[in-house]
Each structure stands twice: as C-alpha cells, then as structure tokens.
Amino acid sequence: MKFVKSLISHAIEGTITFLAVIFAMGSFYWFENTWMKIVGCIGALIAGYVISYGAAKIRQT
C-alpha cells in the first residue's frame, strides 16, 4: 500500500510539473506584451515549484 501511495503522489507531482511547464511555454504565445510573456513564464514555473513542494510535504506526513 505504501508503494501505491508513493506512486500516486509522484504521478501527481509529475502532472503538476508538466502543467506548469506547458503554461510557462504557452505564456510566450498567449500574451502579446513582452513583460507579460516573461512574467507569465517565470510565474508559472514558480507556481509549479511551490505546488510540487507542497505536494511533497503532504506526502512526507
């Protein structure tokens, strides 16, 4: 059961990271202003890191 819990939590973290990278790369196409492109990319990567970090903390408990 511990293996399944670990596998699911890693899959969730991988999905979060994947979606953050997709949004970060997509921000270069969705936004027209250069500053919005840069801020959207950096913001998506930071948000993905923070959410993945939170998921890892939940997994440890």
From TrEMBL:
Keywords: Membrane, Transmembrane, Transmembrane helix. It comes from the Bacteria. The chain crosses the membrane at residues 12-31, 37-56. The keyword Transmembrane helix applies. This is Uncharacterized protein. It comes from Pantoea anthophila.
